[in-house]
Write a structure and sequence with these properties.
- Helix content is about 25%, strand content about 25%.
- It contains 5 helices and 13 strands.
- Helix 4 (about 105-120) runs parallel beside helix 5.
- The longest helix is centred in the middle third of the chain and has 14 residues, at about 105-120.
C-alpha cells in the first residue's frame, strides 16, 4: 500500500498543489492536521482534500476544533476523520489522535491509548499524531525537546511501524526513531511512503 502523508499546509495553495501532484500515484492520503489558519475557509479546504480523488484519513491540528471538523466531514465522501479512532485497511491499522501540540503530558491520550492497544494487536500500525512525540528529531526547537512524553511512552511500549506527526514547522521532512518505530514529519508538500517497506 502506497500512501501520501502531509501536514500543516494551513490552506497554502502552493503546498497543496505539490501534495496533489504526489497523490496521483498513491492508494491513500493521510493528513496530520493544521490544514487551515484558525479554520479560515475550512469547508472549502476540506472540499479540496475530498477532490484529490483518493480516500483521506485525517485528524485536526491546533488550528481546528475537532467537533467542527467531525461535523463538516460528513459532507464529503472521501474524508474520514479518525481522531480518537482506529481505521483498518488491508490489514493495516491507522490510529488517529489530533489537536494539542503544546503539552508534554496528555492524560486524555493516555486514557484513550488502551483502546489503541487493543486495535493494533498483531497488526501493522500507523499512528497519526498532530504534535510530535518527545525525544526525537521531530520535536527539537532551538536544541530543546518540546514534544509529548505520553506519546513517546505509548510508542516505546507498543512499537507502531510508523508514527506520523506535524505541528513544528521547523522540523518538516525530519525522520527519527523510537526504538524500531519510524517517526516522520512529512511536511506540507508531503511524502510518499510504501507501508510494506516497514
Amino acid at each position: 500500500m502506497k500512501i501520501l502523508a502531509f501536514t500543516d499546509h494551513h490552506g497554502s495553495p502552493n503546498d497543496f498543489k505539490f501534495a496533489k501532484k504526489k497523490a496521483k500515484g498513491v492508494d491513500l492520503i493521510l493528513h496530520m492536521g493544521d490544514f487551515t489558519i484558525f479554520e479560515h475557509e475550512i469547508e472549502a479546504i476540506m472540499a479540496e482534500m475530498n477532490n484529490m480523488g483518493k480516500p483521506v484519513l485525517f485528524i485536526h491540528g491546533n488550528h481546528e476544533d475537532d467537533l467542527i471538523v467531525e461535523y463538516l466531514c460528513k459532507k464529503f465522501k472521501n474524508l474520514k476523520f479518525i481522531h480518537k479512532k482506529h481505521y483498518e485497511i488491508d490489514g493495516v491499522v491507522f490510529l488517529g489522535y489530533g489537536g494539542g501540540g503544546f503539552s508534554m503530558i496528555d492524560k486524555e491520550f493516555e486514557k484513550h491509548s488502551k483502546k489503541f492497544e487493543k486495535a493494533m494487536k498483531g497488526k501493522k500500525t500507523i499512528l497519526m499524531l498532530h504534535g510530535p512525540p518527545y525525544g526525537t528529531k521531530a520535536d527539537i526547537i532551538m536544541g530543546d525537546h518540546v514534544g509529548n512524553e505520553s506519546f513517546t511512552k505509548f510508542i516505546k511500549k507498543n512499537q507502531p511501524e510508523i508514527v506520523l506527526c506535524g505541528h513544528l514547522h521547523e522540523n518538516f521532512h525530519v525522520k527519527s526513531k523510537i526504538k524500531k518505530s519510524v517517526v516522520i514529519n512529512p511536511g506540507p508538500d508531503g511524502e510518499i511512503i510504501e507501508i510494506w517497506d516497514f
